[in-house]
Design brief:
By secondary structure, this protein is α/β, with parallel strands linked by helices.
Length: 295
């Protein structure tokens, strides 16, 4: 997906239980209205999700997920808003594409449902492959790494190989470190500090820190109480600007208007790029054979 500016993806969860906006947009009209607002505020894409991925969340079945997302995607398509479908299920992705979605955002990177690669290959659409180790119910047990940056890089490259082998084009692939998915706060900070390693793989990189728990922990009160979800926005903006400065292709956020303002400041200062520093056992950017699809 070629763009000449950092892509802003607005989050629209049509779930009763997502950690930040759960329960707010379960009615189709309210969800479409919010999606249009996100678009007007500067979202290039609105990411529609019908299943919560917060730690510990129980799964819903595919028909429930489809019933939640399809009318919202149809409404947004009618309003001229580009959408991505946030799902790990091939059947849900196929129904969403049919309804007008243009991007698959798969937090499992194709691991949860091996049919997803075929859906992506047939549609020829962008496919976000996020780093993932298991479903939300038990993902915290899987947050064990000797070198999180190298392992996330290698596991994402495995997902890329599987996608390419299934006939997905390299130009369809977008990578995502999967902050908070089978990762502790320390893992998230390490990945943020070395985002250049993923950027160096040559695929667009999406960064999704918005309002996540590790930001709440960073900003905890003196008694250790994490900062409430809705008071993590300033920290989210800082992560988004740093990610874009490190070469991220886009950010997935709840507050699109504030993100657009923050990125306007970044652009006005000449779109400065961070230089990578600490080597940490990972190869230099560009050391792999993957070609850049971004240019
Ligand atoms: N995080 C969540 C859901 N979907 N998709 C991508 N690509 N990257 C993410 O980091 C990501 C995601 C969980 O956050 P939410 O509950 O606010 O949607």
């Amino acid at each position: 997906m070629h763009v000449d500016h950092p892509v802003v993806i607005g989050v629209l969860n049509v779930t009763p239980d997502s950690f930040s906006d759960g329960g707010r947009y379960t009615d189709v009209e309210a969800a479409v209205r919010h999606g249009v607002e996100l678009h007007s505020a500067g979202a290039d894409i609105v990411d529609v999700g019908g299943e919560s991925t917060r730690p510990g969340a129980e799964r819903v079945d595919a028909p429930t997920e489809i019933a939640r997302v399809v009318p919202v995607i149809e409404g947004l398509a009618r309003a001229g808003v580009l959408t991505s479908i946030d799902t790990t299920r091939a059947a849900v992705a196929a129904a969403a594409l049919e309804a007008g979605a243009t991007v698959i955002n798969d937090v499992s990177g194709g691991l949860a449902d091996r049919g997803m690669a075929r859906v992506a290959a047939e549609a020829g659409c962008p496919w976000v492959l996020m780093h993932w180790r298991g479903h939300s119910r038990h993902m915290n047990e899987l947050a064990v790494y000797a070198d999180v940056v190298a392992e996330v890089r290698d596991e994402l490259l495995q997902r890329v190989d599987d996608a390419l082998a299934a006939g997905v084009g390299p130009g369809q692939i977008i990578l995502d470190p999967g902050l908070g998915f089978a990762k502790t706060a320390e893992h998230n900070w390490a990945l943020s500090a070395r985002l250049d390693v993923l950027v160096g793989l040559g695929y667009p990189v999406l960064f999704g820190a918005s309002r996540k728990t590790y930001l709440g922990r960073l900003l905890a009160a003196a008694d250790g109480t994490p900062r409430p979800v809705r008071e993590r926005e300033a920290a989210t903006l800082a992560t988004s600007v740093l990610a874009v400065a490190a070469g991220a292709w886009g950010v997935r956020v709840h507050d699109v208007a504030a993100t657009a303002d923050a990125l306007a400041v970044w652009r006005a200062t000449g779109s400065p790029r961070l230089q990578s520093s600490a080597p940490s056992g990972t190869p230099a950017p560009g050391e792999t054979s993957a070609r850049s699809e971004k240019e």
